[in-house]
Amino acid sequence: MNKLAANGQSVDEIYVTGDITVGNDATVKPGIYDLEVTGGRGNFTGTRKDINGLFFNWVLGTPDSGADYASKVRLILFDGDVLSFRNISKIKLNAVPEKVTEATELGIGEYIVGRDVPAGKYKLSTNMEMDPQFANLGWDLDIYNDNEGNSRSQNFNPGNQDVAIELKEGEIISTSFYNSKHDVPTDTAKLILTAV
Hints:
The chain is 3% helix and 46% strand. With 196 residues, the protein is mostly beta strands. It has one helix spanning 2-7; strands spanning 11-15, 20-21, 31-47, 57-61, 72-77, 82-95, 105-106, 109-112, 120-126, 139-145, 150-156, 164-167, 172-177, 191-195. The strands form 3 sheets. Strands 1, 2, 3, 4, 5 and 6 form a 6-stranded antiparallel sheet that branches.
């Protein structure tokens, strides 16, 4: 995965005029990126060429779009992946460096176990207040294991707050957060992993 990170090349602000295909000869190269929405708000989806069980599916928008959507998401992009945007007009892609420090606080997006986050067993918490009136709104996690070719899902929300997960070396954890507190920017959301 570090080789993939070394491959990434930042893309300055571009207009979204259709689907974007990732490729070595394309505008967006395979790599690890922080995607930033700089125009519009709407859905970001797409398809993976070679991976089943790891999906693009976020609602994003600019910070001034009048909604509490995240404006940034971490992405792991492989050759042949296709990015689709609805009502999002402009984006930037900032390449993530090859060498990063492992952390136990994750934002919204995709993270590699053993590179971005250490392997281990963790209890989940967050820096965000989750409104108990919306028992199902909070964090959604998908954990993809390429060696086993499978994925598993976990929710952490007001209706399910006592949650632990195990992360294995090489897995990819994908996070999304549904913010029920409209006065706090979603971009500040962190999923906190405490070793157990």
